[in-house]
């Protein structure tokens, strides 16, 4: 969002009253703005350049205000004050008019056909008898810069030129010439330069060098002359010094050259409407005539007012309020949109002024009505539709893989999604044209030129940055890559990839291959050529010849693994062998990550239809329970209904996360539709009511929420039906309970004798000493002295590391529920005199 800096005292003086910082912050919020910062020029310079540079700066308080990017009318003090005063009903929105010159002819701007090659469009207007002060002049210049950076897209679409009309004479000619044929004295310079010399001069200018590329490579440059051949400007670079405006300027000629005519009209309208209030006839703008190469003539500025009609019901429904048509018209008028009811039902006629080019749809008008009404004044209501949140299947699979890959001894890395062209092409021995990469049109740095098409460069750069860490380095990443895809509406798609690298003194292809097998085991894909996965030799310039394999799952290629080519390793500034694995994990979902898995969404259980027995008619669905008494209280009373409403404040259902028989039972206990005041209960009631046709299919309940009456009344009940003493039934119930408990005890005893399945894992540990003087036999004794329930030590051997140093490689078998790798590593590294570090070399489930 653009930020407008205004002097606090000047702002308050224009508003006609003084506010505290808190009051003005609240006013900005009500108007849809944000007071971003309260500072001063001195404080800004001190913060950015140091206290020494800020010694002579002003201490005047500045308000930094964030405004919406499409509200061009609020980018200066004049528009901001005008909008706030209309919003507070202190001022009526002014009406802007285009007038003809009182004396002399209309100023004309003639466009020649040569401009078609660079900037074919131009518009113009005159601010007649304007009065500038220092503050007004600064605001005028600052608005030009704000527009240049915003709607003008850094002058690439529109460039604004302002000139002292009394120093030049019309008609004016807008043409294009070769740079060597253009010569004039540019703004704030003391001598004339050719256009070619100006391009060289401004290459070191901190402000203008950003605009040189717009016309630098063009065969001709745009230029504007007056009738005497005086250069007004060379858009979009610089104005001429001859026609520069000052505090004494009375008549301002404004021209806008552009590649987009609509944007040029908008910019011109904003410029003249904001500062026409300082003319001798406020809010009037003198017209100018623009003649096109084909002879067509247009009068500018347009200052067009247009009218739109919409219904009050539309605004009430979209905003969530209930206001009469007259009130809505008043709200819109406060936002500088003059509105009034037409009398045809609830129809409202809205007039859009030339200062509001942001209003292009009925929704924009509705938004302004919501701002004027006050977002804090809109009553919070529960949405009529609601859903059960669920994790994307691709993200769920990613999280599961991340945990198990970390348990396998690999460290996760997270790299940037953008990279350089060199990273995904030259460094991997590939051509950029073969990568299907999405290019950034205007990259800020060479490091972020394209969206990555592979995760491998990021991991290799991470390894290069951590070369001093103890070997081996085992890294993995599961993230998205971006690939071109013409079938998508945006021309590209995301693809979730898994990549792992092993960097050591030996290539370690068997480690990467083992990681692939472990990953497939986790994904429940068996090693088989047709119905599982397999690898076969492949050629890839990124990998060493003969050391690359392609991964196939169900006959489809999903990735590759192998030993990286020495050229690739060298280009990433690495010096040791490296093996890598990269594959697509989306095929393991059965479809792309953009599609939801329906079986992951909580679904209502289905109950198989059981046909009625012969001789028995099918029982009708049970009617409402005889009782309204529930665990929440009696639902016939307001207290009971309120208790249920409070219970449902943060719940969608009475029990669990899907509709069940518990909801049906409580629904039947509610005697009638709940009132509007109990919004949570009413929301739940309407939702459960929608299940009436298949309520019998809802899952059964675990808890009884409705309390049945002790003595249900019946018109057909007789005295014989009431057992006042309950002797035989109670005795029978007690006997049934005893038999049930006995059978449960027998089942529990039988189940306890069945041996439980014990999950075990085989772990291979690398235990490294401090130096070559460490007693390795003593080190092994220390390791084997670690005793834990569920731990069994196996064979061991000493392997050379380098420079006479050896490491102990020892195997063990652990019970997963009793011994974890973290606990085991902590116990071994406790022998600090002998052990430097412990790494998990291999981890396999038994």
What does this structure look like?
This protein is of the alpha+beta class and 846 residues long. It is 27% helix and 24% strand. It is built from 21 helices and 35 strands. It has a 7-stranded mixed β-sheet with strand order 13-12-11-8-5-16-17, with no helix packed on it. Strands 21-24-25-29-28-27-26 form a 7-stranded mixed β-sheet. Strand 16 (288-291) and strand 17 form a beta hairpin. The protein is extended and about 110 Å long.
Summarize the structure.
GO terms for molecular function: ATP binding; magnesium ion binding; phenylalanine-tRNA ligase activity; RNA binding; translation elongation factor activity. This protein is α+β, with helices and mostly antiparallel strands and 846 residues long. Strands 13-12-11-8-5-16-17 form a seven-stranded mixed β-sheet, with no helix packed on it. It has a seven-stranded mixed β-sheet with strand order 21-24-25-29-28-27-26.
């Amino acid at each position: 969002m653009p930020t407008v800096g205004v002097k606090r005292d000047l702002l308050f003086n224009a508003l006609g009253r003084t506010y505290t910082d808190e009051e003005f912050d609240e006013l900005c919020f009500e108007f849809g703005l944000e007071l971003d910062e309260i500072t001063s020029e001195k404080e800004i310079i001190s913060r950015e350049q140091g206290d020494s540079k800020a010694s002579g700066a002003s201490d005047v308080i500045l308000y930094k205000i964030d405004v919406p990017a499409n509200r061009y009318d609020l980018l200066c003090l004049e528009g901001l004050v005008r909008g706030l005063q209309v919003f507070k009903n202190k001022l009526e929105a002014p009406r802007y008019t285009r007038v003809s010159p009182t004396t002399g002819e209309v100023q004309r701007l003639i466009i020649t056909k040569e401009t078609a090659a660079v900037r074919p469009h131009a518009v113009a207007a005159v601010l007649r008898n304007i009065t500038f002060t220092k503050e007004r002049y600064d605001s005028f210049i600052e608005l030009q810069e704000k527009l240049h950076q915003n709607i003008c897209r850094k002058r690439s679409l529109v460039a604004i030129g302002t000139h002292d009309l009394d120093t030049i004479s019309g008609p004016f000619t807008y043409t294009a010439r070769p740079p060597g044929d253009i010569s004039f004295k540019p703004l704030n310079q003391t001598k004339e330069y050719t256009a070619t010399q100006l391009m060289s001069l401004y290459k070191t200018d901190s402000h203008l060098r950003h605009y040189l590329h717009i016309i630098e490579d063009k065969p001709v440059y745009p230029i504007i002359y007056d009738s005497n051949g005086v250069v007004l400007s060379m858009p979009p670079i610089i104005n001429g010094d001859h026609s520069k405006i000052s505090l004494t300027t009375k008549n301002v000629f404004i021209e806008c050259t552009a590649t987009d005519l609509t944007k040029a009209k908008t910019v011109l309208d904003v410029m003249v409407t904001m500062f026409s209030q300082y003319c001798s006839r406020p809010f009037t703008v003198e017209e100018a005539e623009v003649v096109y190469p084909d002879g067509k003539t247009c009068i500018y500025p347009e200052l067009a007012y247009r009218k739109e009609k919409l219904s009050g019901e539309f605004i009430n429904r979209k905003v969530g309020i209930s206001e009469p048509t007259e009130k809505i018209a008043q709200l819109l008028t406060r936002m500088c949109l003059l509105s009034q009811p037409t009398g045809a039902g609830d129809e409202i006629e809205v007039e859009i002024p030339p200062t509001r080019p942001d209003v292009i749809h009925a929704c924009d008008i509705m938004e302004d009505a919501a701002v004027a009404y006050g977002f804090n004044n809109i009553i919070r209501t529960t949405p009529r539709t609601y859903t059960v949140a669920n994790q994307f299947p691709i993200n769920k699979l990613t999280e599961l893989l991340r945990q198990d890959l970390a348990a396998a001894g690999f460290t996760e890395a997270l790299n940037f999604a953008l990279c350089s062209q060199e990273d995904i092409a030259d460094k991997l021995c590939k051509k950029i044209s073969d990568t299907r990469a999405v290019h950034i049109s205007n990259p800020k740095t060479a490091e972020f030129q394209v969206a990555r098409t592979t995760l491998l460069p990021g991991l290799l750069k991470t390894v290069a940055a951590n070369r001093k860490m103890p070997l081996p380095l085992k890294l993995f990443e599961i993230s998205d890559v971006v690939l071109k895809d013409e079938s998508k509406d945006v021309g590209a798609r995301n693809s979730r990839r898994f990549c792992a690298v092993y960097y050591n003194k030996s290539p370690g292809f068997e480690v990467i291959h083992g990681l692939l097998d472990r990953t497939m085991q986790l994904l429940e894909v068996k090693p088989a050529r047709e119905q599982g996965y397999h690898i076969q030799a492949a050629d890839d310039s990124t990998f060493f010849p003969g050391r690359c394999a392609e991964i196939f799952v169900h006959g489809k290629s999903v990735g590759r693994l192998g030993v990286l080519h020495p050229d690739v390793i060298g280009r990433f500034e690495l010096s040791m062998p490296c093996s890598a694995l990269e594959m697509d994990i989306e095929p393991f979902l059965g479809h792309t990550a953009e599609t939801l898995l329906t079986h992951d969404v909580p679904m209502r259980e289905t109950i198989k239809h059981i046909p009625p027995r012969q001789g028995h008619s099918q029982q009708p669905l049970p009617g409402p329970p005889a009782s309204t008494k529930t665990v929440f209280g009696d639902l016939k009373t307001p207290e009971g209904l309120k208790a249920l409403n409070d219970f449902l404040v943060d719940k969608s259902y009475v029990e669990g996360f899907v509709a069940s028989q518990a909801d049906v039972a409580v629904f039947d206990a509610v005697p009638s539709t709940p009132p509007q005041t109990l919004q949570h209960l009413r929301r739940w009631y309407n939702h459960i009511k929608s299940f009436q046709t298949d309520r019998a299919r809802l899952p059964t309940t675990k808890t009884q929420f409705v309390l049945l009456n002790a003595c249900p009344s019946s018109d057909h009940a007789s005295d014989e039906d009431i057992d006042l003493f309950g002797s035989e039934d109670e005795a029978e119930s007690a006997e049934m309970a005893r038999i049930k408990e006995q059978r449960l005890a027998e089942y529990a005893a039988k189940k306890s004798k069945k041996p439980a399945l014990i999950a075990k894992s085989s772990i291979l540990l690398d235990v490294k000493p401090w130096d070559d003087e460490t007693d390795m036999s003593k080190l092994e004794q220390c390791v084997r002295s670690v005793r834990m329930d569920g731990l069994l030590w196996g064979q061991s051997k000493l392997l050379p590391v380098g420079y006479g140093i050896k490491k102990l490689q020892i195997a063990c078998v652990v019970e997963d529920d009793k011994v974890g790798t973290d606990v085991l590593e902590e116990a071994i590294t406790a022998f600090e005199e002998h052990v430097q570090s412990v790494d998990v070399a291999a981890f396999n489930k038994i």
